[in-house]
Amino acid sequence: MLGNNLPPASEVIGLYKANNINRMRLYDPNQAALQALRGSNIEVMLGVPNSDLQSLATNPDNARSWVQRNVLNFWPSVKFKYIAVGNEVNPVGGSSWLAQYVLPAIQNVYQAIRAQGLHDRIKVSTAIDTTLIGVSYPPSQGSFRNDVRQYLDPIIGYLVYANAPIFANVYPYFSYKGNPRDISLPYALFTSPSVQVWDNGRGYQNLFDAMMDSLYAALDATRTGNVEVVLSESGWPSDGDFGATYDNARTYLSNLIRHVKGGTPRRSGRAIETYLFAMFDENQKNPELEKHFGVFYPNKQKKYDFNFGGKREWDITAEYNGTLSLKSDM
Description:
Layout: H1 9-18, E1 23-26, H2 31-37, E2 43-48, H3 53-58, H4 60-72, E3 79-87, H5 99-115, E4 123-129, E5 133-135, E6 143-144, H6 146-162, E7 166-169, H7 172-178, H8 185-188, E8 197-199, E9 202-204, H9 207-221, E10 229-234, H10 246-259, E11 274-277, E12 314-319, E13 323-328
Parallel strand pairs: 1-2, 2-3, 3-4, 4-7, 7-10, 10-11
Antiparallel strand pairs: 1-13, 5-6, 8-9, 11-13, 12-13
């Protein structure tokens, strides 16, 4: 939504429906968007902004009123599927002061949802990024950094208790951009003609699988219990920086859409629920690269030629703020 040329919420919902996009990620409870979603049948991942974490963590009444205002007031005419409590909070670095609030905020929001008997319908979690992984190569040795375990392990434990997935934002683009000497473009774009990495009998032909499997291995290594992963963001910019071209973005996104239905070598055959970032190019974001992640132009024209479902094997879900979700019909 960080653009001054984007269509109004009602037109965005129309665009989703016209393109058979059946899920949406919203990064905050934008009231116009929630009103427009009424009766649309679009499943929603609703974000609690990082700026609200302290308030919701320190006072259960604040969490209850947040849930009432932004969820219950719209339910069931808006089909909430997930609540993402915080996005990419890191216990080390710029947002470290927020880390102490993530788990209590998750717990308070979960209890507010549970009090309404909706905890099996609406799952409460948080979105992490891959900077929390300390060892990612080879994928089977994936593990979280020692300095984030005290933060992350209790969250994972609570998600096991609540039977909720963890949300992960995974971008092969940034790994490629940061290390093009060791990571080839075909490996990042799913176009490598052969296996590039063998690891304990598993062959890796693309970077996405390697990144996801290092995350699965890191989760397994906590020995906390089984947690599913929802891919809450992935994308590739079409302009603005190294490797950011229209052709690369189209290739990555179209291959990602096809690929996630089959899982990864470590989780073979298990489709990955996936949200594409983002719905629109956003001209008020910085740096320049961040302006070019859209799958649609602000004038509602498709940027790329792939389809978002309908009678096909796949349907995709978009994030308006945001991101697109892929849901396999299998």
